[in-house]
Write a structure and sequence with these properties.
Bound molecules: S-adenosylmethionine
Number of helices: 12
Largest sheet: 7 strands, mixed
Strand order of the largest sheet: 4-3-2-5-6-9-7
CATH superfamily of the largest domain: Vaccinia Virus protein VP39
CATH architecture of the largest domain: 3-Layer(aba) Sandwich
Structural class: alpha/beta
Mean pLDDT: 94
Shape: elongated
Number of strands: 9
Distance between the termini: 66 Å
Number of domains: 2
Radius of gyration: 22 Å
Length: 297
């Protein structure tokens, strides 16, 4: 078995990179978690064993991969950095429960999903834009994991868990809470990473909802959700009117200019409010009313 670098030691990681002619690539948001206690806590939050399947996104040099493999879970890792991918292959390919997918996870995950189905757990320590895009793509495609354990910029974690009427509440909050209960695992200080990032990170645990949110027409719901938040200073009524101008609602018999008002009346929602004050069930109600029109032709 090849000798792994000392994952707690920046000096050891640095030496490994130098010996192998590799360098950290800023564009991929590369910071290694060099705090062993935090790594143990993250793996514990996944609660997986040999009966489970796990995807790890952004394994880097394998600090978490090593621990995840030890749980016995069937592990697939997704890494974009070619040099890291070669190192991971060297370190872990002897493990029967290890599969490596090299490339941009935003492009590679759909084909892996098609081939192997949805794993039980999604694990990752990712740059903020990749984590948010990936999670949003997966939820809108109705790809929901039993649990996800993510380490992200604290600011993103706050958005995931934000409640209506708070400054962090956005369409991304509603989207995350459509699929999951969001819980904080722990905050991770910049000094637990090498190189040290400028921001505090937060690990979050997302658990698939026991009673799933049910939009009859998920595509309509997600499109509407984005639209209602599209201009934060506008009322939901104005944002809905912009959406209605682009999306014809076929079953409405009244005058088109009354449609938005009718939708809010039937949803029992004030048209003058802003999207950041509405709850998930209220967004769902608006989508249901529109969907009903579509089916009353
Ligand atoms: N998990 C390792 C650790 O904690 O030590 C490394 C985490 S580092 C913050 C993020 C990792 O995600 C890097 O290995 C980076 O190359 C990888 N990454 C960044 N963007 C990616 C993408 N689009 N697809 C796959 N991996 C990506």
């Amino acid at each position: 078995m090849p000798c792994l670098p000392d994952y707690d030691s920046p000096a050891s990681l640095k030496a490994f990179l130098e010996e192998n002619g590799m360098a950290m690539q800023k564009k991929f948001g590369q910071n290694f978690l060099v705090n062993g206690t935090c790594r143990e806590k993250l793996v514990a939050a996944c609660s997986v064993d040999r009966t489970n399947t796990v995807w790890e996104i952004g394994p880097g040099l394998g600090a978490m991969t090593d621990l995840l493999l030890k749980t016995g879970a069937e592990l697939t890792v997704f890494e974009i950095d070619h040099g890291f991918a070669r190192a991971l292959e060297r370190f872990f390919s002897a493990h029967e429960n290890f599969t490596l997918v090299e490339g941009d996870v935003l492009k590679t995950w759909p084909s892996v999903l098609k081939k192997n189905g949805i794993p039980d757990c999604l694990f990752g320590n990712l740059p903020y834009n990749i984590a948010a895009t990936m999670l949003a793509d997966m939820i809108t495609a109705n790809v929901l994991f039993d649990t996800c354990v993510f380490t992200v910029q604290k600011e993103v974690a706050l958005r995931m868990a934000a409640k209506p009427g708070t400054k962090d509440y956005s369409s991304f909050s509603v989207l995350c809470q459509y699929g999951y209960e969001v819980q904080t695992v722990m905050d991770i200080a910049p000094g637990s990473f090498w190189p040290k990032p400028n921001v505090t990170s937060r690990a979050v645990l997302l658990r698939k909802k026991k009673v799933p949110s049910s939009a009859s027409n998920p595509a309509l719901f997600f499109s509407l959700l984005r639209a209602l938040f599209s201009s934060r200073r506008k009322t939901v009524s104005n944002n809905l009117k912009s959406w209605l101008a682009l999306n014809k609602v076929s079953g409405y018999n009244g005058a088109q200019e009354n449609l938005a008002a009718d939708i809010f009346e039937q949803s029992d929602i004030q048209p003058s409010v802003r999207a950041e004050t509405l709850r998930l069930d209220e967004f769902l109600k608006i989508a249901e009313v529109i969907n009903r029109y579509e089916h009353t032709r």
